[in-house]
């Protein structure tokens, strides 16, 4: 060691790898319980945080929250929401009034519109109002118990609301990030929460299988009976959503909006000569609500599966000679059936003809 001029092995290793002095490990900052995104420097990170704070303030400036519904008011309105759910289950609403989704049902009144998977062309700006009369009118109790109190409290002007939507969430339900269609609805957007407390999140990104949601730019608690009014940046320039983790109990929200006079609308389909007329011209026919998911068939799991290749083998078995049939049997189901069939025969007499076999019934 002395001959090489180094008295400490660490000094020798350090001289051999001088570039390691400038190396800084790329670690994540877990301060305040949050995982920080990677940035090249602390200065970049501070700029990123500052931008998020500025955006959060813009969102906050476009939000107004008021409490005008007491616990007694909430209980009365919640009973009416249960009546809506009951009527929908009995099929007493028009077809487009009810829209079902896993852990969330929507009930459109006054005006309804196409969105999500219902769109012929996906993307913002493709939403369309249904033709007049496609959804049921706004119930009288919504006018008396909800809209009237909002007008008296000067949250909205009289005659503003012509669209009311009830979203009924079960625990774990959600609605993905979106902006209420600007070409469909005027601003502001007013919502009233019932049954339980929850939260509205802004600026989240959803990923699926499994479902994951990024950290919000702004987390807004919404209490039972609270009124939330969105306008400006909060309504138009950033998405909002309901995360699954924020619905711990059943929660319902009544969304009150006004449609634009120039909002695009689906064209009314003319009745053909073969269509039966309605029972009464004054009252439209009652249609059962559409269901977006098929009911499972309990006997489906016990039916034998027949693959297309098995069908092909059966067709070939009629044409090909026996020695070629055996070589051509490549289907897994065909192979399994042939072995099960061979095991299900019981030879009662060793000396008897091999053709005399009794097939056992499989249970």
TrEMBL record:
Give UniProt keywords alphabetically.
Dioxygenase, Disulfide bond, Iron, Metal-binding, Nucleus, Oxidoreductase
Ranges annotated as biased composition (Basic and acidic residues)? 8-27, 295-316
Q: What is this protein called?
A: RNA demethylase ALKBH5
Q: Which cofactor does it need?
A: Fe(2+)
Region (Disordered), start-end ranges: 1-49, 266-363
Please give the family membership noted in the entry: Belongs to the alkB family.
The record, for InterPro entries, names: AlkB-like, AlkB-like_sf, ALKBH5
Iron as a keyword?
A: yes
Where's it mainly located?
nucleus
Q: In which compartments does the protein localize?
A: Nucleus speckle
EC id: 1.14.11.53
What is the scientific name of the source organism?
Huso huso
Q: Which reaction does it catalyse?
A: an N(6)-methyladenosine in mRNA + 2-oxoglutarate + O2 = an adenosine in mRNA + formaldehyde + succinate + CO2
Q: Which PANTHER family match?
A: RNA DEMETHYLASE ALKBH5
């Amino acid at each position: 060691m002395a001959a090489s001029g180094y008295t400490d092995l660490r000094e020798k290793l350090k001289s051999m790898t001088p570039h390691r002095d400038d190396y800084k490990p790329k670690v994540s900052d877990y301060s305040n319980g949050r995982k920080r995104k990677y940035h090249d420097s602390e200065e970049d990170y501070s700029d990123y945080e500052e931008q998020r704070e500025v955006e959060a303030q813009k969102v906050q400036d476009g939000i107004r929250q008021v409490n005008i519904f007491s616990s007694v008011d909430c209980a009365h309105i919640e009973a009416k929401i249960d009546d809506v759910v009951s009527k929908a289950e009995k099929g007493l609403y028009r077809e487009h009034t009810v829209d079902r989704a896993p852990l969330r049902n929507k009930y459109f009144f006054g005006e309804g519109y196409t969105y999500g998977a219902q769109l012929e062309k996906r993307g913002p700006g493709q939403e369309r109002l249904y033709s007049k009369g496609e959804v049921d009118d706004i119930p009288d109790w919504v006018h008396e118990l909800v809209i009237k109190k909002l007008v008296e409290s000067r949250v909205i002007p009289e005659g503003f609301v012509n669209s009311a939507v009830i979203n009924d969430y079960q625990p774990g339900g959600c609605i993905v990030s979106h902006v209420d269609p600007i070409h469909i609805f005027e601003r502001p957007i007013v919502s009233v929460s019932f049954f339980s407390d929850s939260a509205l999140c802004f600026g989240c990104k959803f990923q699926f299988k499994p479902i994951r949601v990024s950290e919000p730019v702004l987390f807004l608690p919404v209490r039972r009976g609270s009124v939330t009014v969105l306008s400006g940046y909060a309504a138009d320039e950033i998405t909002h959503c309901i995360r699954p983790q924020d619905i711990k109990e059943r929660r319902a929200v009544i969304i009150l909006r006004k449609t634009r006079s120039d909002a695009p609308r689906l064209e009314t389909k003319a009745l053909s000569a073969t269509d039966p007329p309605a029972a009464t011209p004054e009252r439209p026919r009652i249609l059962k609500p559409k269901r977006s998911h098929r009911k499972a068939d309990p006997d489906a799991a016990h039916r034998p599966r027949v693959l297309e290749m098995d069908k092909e083998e059966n067709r070939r078995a009629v044409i090909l000679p026996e020695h070629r049939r055996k070589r051509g049997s490549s289907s897994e189901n065909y192979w399994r059936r042939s072995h099960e069939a061979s095991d299900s025969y019981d030879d009662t007499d060793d000396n008897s003809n091999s053709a005399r076999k009794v097939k056992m019934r499989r249970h």
